[in-house]
Amino acid sequence: MLTVLPLKDEKKLNKIIELLPKVGQAPNVLMAEQDGNDLGYIAISEEKNALNILDIYLVDCENFDELSYEKKSNVDLLIRSAGSYSMNRKLLNLQCENKNLFSLLNRFGFQENQNKTAIPLYELFKPCHI
What we know:
The protein is α+β, with helices and mostly antiparallel strands. It is 30% helix and 33% strand. The protein has a single domain, classed as 3-Layer(aba) Sandwich (Aminopeptidase), CATH 3.40.630.30. A seven-stranded mixed β-sheet has the order 1-2-3-4-5-7-6, sandwiched between helices.
């Protein structure tokens, strides 16, 4: 079964948080797992009007330049999971100030503006037209 949930394992969580930039609000980590195996995570922190993406990590992925279909699907899953997390907290935008992630996120619809790239949730979750 495929799941994306806030990471509860304190050892794993602390190890990831140590690698993240220091932010005002304590970061959280959403971990993607399939059948008990880690696929990757998205590290996030809440801001006033947005959810900030601090980092994205995929298991067995050295860089994001050339992603397989499976890896693209995993990134999409993590971004949409962060969007859902954001929506549940009434934060209407996802944003990222980590320049190392700009080119990756821009491929998923984020738009650069000054020192960040962002997407409003209404763009991330467009309604299906039947």
